[in-house]
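Appendix C: a fully annotated inverse folding record. The material below is reproduced so that readers can follow the format used throughout the book. The structure is listed first as tokens, followed by the designed sequence.
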């Protein structure tokens, strides 16, 4: 830690610090550096208790620093103070004098005496712009709150031991959309500004922007929440059908909790994408089976069906991304039709997807 040759005068408000420091400065023929977070502002003499008259001792004016350096309203901070102190300190020391630090703002004094290591972080214009845009886009979160309340009420009814998380919103500088830590669920509003939001064009592909619409907040919250509670049980034999049905199961439950008409709507597919999937459902299934992909463990094959992308080349057309999840949800729906007494809680806890597939009679007719 750096050390400084200086005298420090500190104490509570109206304890006579300034009077004492000025008298001492007059005797030592030196100068004062203020450590007061309010006296930095110009014009506010009475309200900040500057007592500028105290800096005159026996007709001699005592030089002072870091008083009246900012206009009212400016957001001055301890980082700036530390830098300003160093400059004032060097000026006084070059004159061969011993500076006196005087004030009652403890953090300012500690920043100097304890040598706080404060980093000079550059401005982030993009982040500042997104903060303003989020505030304008989301003056309130009434619709989000309504959707979350609806979903958690139903989930609590279906799964009584559900622990509803504390939900907060944030700006994440375009990091994670939904954050789950212990009993907290965070929504990064800057990731839901709408697919045409100009800043997205700098960082994301068009297909990624499509998932950043406000209407995706609530289903994303439930998908992430359910995945955190009912994660995939990976094992040596985990293959494509396991992943399809697990992801499909989560989205099927989200569809039921939030009352979507079908799985495509729950997943955020456009009408055209959803219609294409329905029209080609049997062909998609035959494509998976005839290419021997159902039990594939090859990461590239799994990625083809399960990862976000602009589209998937299939059947001579462009299938929607995450087509494996869509198919998995359809298999789950077929299974649930055959097991009408099964509760969502039991479904979420059941993970033998090969049994579920065989008992679903999927596309049997």
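Designed amino acids, in order:
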């Amino acid at each position: 830690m750096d050390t400084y040759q200086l005298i420090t005068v500190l104490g509570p408000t109206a304890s006579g610090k300034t009077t004492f420091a000025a008298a001492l400065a007059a005797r030592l023929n030196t100068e004062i550096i203020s450590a007061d977070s309010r006296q930095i502002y110009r014009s506010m003499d009475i309200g900040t208790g500057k007592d500028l008259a105290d800096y005159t001792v026996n007709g001699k004016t005592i030089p002072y620093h870091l008083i009246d350096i900012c206009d009212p309203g400016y957001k001055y901070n301890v980082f700036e103070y530390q830098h300003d102190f160093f400059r004032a300190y060097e000026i006084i020391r070059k004159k061969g004098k011993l500076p006196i630090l005087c004030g009652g703002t403890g953090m300012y004094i500690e920043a100097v005496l304890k040598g706080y290591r404060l980093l000079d972080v550059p401005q982030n214009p993009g982040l500042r712009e997104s903060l303003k845009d989020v505030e304008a886009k989301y003056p309130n979160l009434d619709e989000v709150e309504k959707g979350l309340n609806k979903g958690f009420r139903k989930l609590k009814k279906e799964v009584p031991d559900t622990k509803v998380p504390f939900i907060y919103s944030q700006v994440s500088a375009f990091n994670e959309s939904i954050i789950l830590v212990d009993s907290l669920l965070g929504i990064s509003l800057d990731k839901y500004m709408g697919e045409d939001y100009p800043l997205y064009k700098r960082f994301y592909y068009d297909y990624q922007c499509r998932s950043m619409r406000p209407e995706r907040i609530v289903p994303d919250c439930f998908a992430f929440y359910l995945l955190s509670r009912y994660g995939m049980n990976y094992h040596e034999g985990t293959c494509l059908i396991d992943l399809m049905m697990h992801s499909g199961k989560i989205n099927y439950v989200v569809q039921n909790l939030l009352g979507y008409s079908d799985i495509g709507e729950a997943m955020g597919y456009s009408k055209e994408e959803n219609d294409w999937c329905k029209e080609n459902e049997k062909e998609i299934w035959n494509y998976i089976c005839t290419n021997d992909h159902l039990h594939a463990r090859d990461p590239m094959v799994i990625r083809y069906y399960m990862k976000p992308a602009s589209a998937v080349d299939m059947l001579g057309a462009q299938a929607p991304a995450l087509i494996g999840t869509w198919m998995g949800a359809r298999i789950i729906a077929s299974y649930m039709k055959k097991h009408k007494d099964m509760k969502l809680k039991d479904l979420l806890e059941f993970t033998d997807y090969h049994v579920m597939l065989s008992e679903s009679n999927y596309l049997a007719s």
